[in-house]
Design goal:
- The chain has three helices and four strands, in the order ββαββαα.
- By secondary structure, the chain is of the alpha+beta class.
- The protein has one domain.
- Strands 1-2 form a two-stranded antiparallel sheet. It has a two-stranded antiparallel sheet with strand order 3-4.
- β1 and β2 form a beta hairpin.
- The longest helix has 12 residues.
- The model has no long low-confidence stretch (mean pLDDT 89).
- It binds zinc ion.
């Protein structure tokens, strides 16, 4: 059974370097939970910042909301 993977994409507000990763639904839940905001750490300047799941991964955000409604 193949697991669907979601792309998380953010950009650091300080240095502007972008970060992208692919996680399965299970990994996403484990790492971020069902929260609207995700905490990220920039690999370049190590700054911690928060971004909304809606921006980082619209696809997951959508499915999250769909699951809540059913
Ligand atoms: Zn940075």
């Amino acid at each position: 059974m193949s697991q669907k993977r979601y792309q998380i994409k953010t950009a650091c507000p300080q240095c502007g370097c972008s970060f992208a990763t692919h996680l399965s639904a299970e990994e996403l839940k484990k790492r971020y939970g069902d929260v609207p905001n995700v905490e990220m750490e920039c690999g370049e300047c190590m700054v911690h910042y928060t971004t909304s799941m809606e921006k980082a991964c619209p696809e997951w955000d959508k499915e999250c909301k769909m699951k809540e409604n059913t």
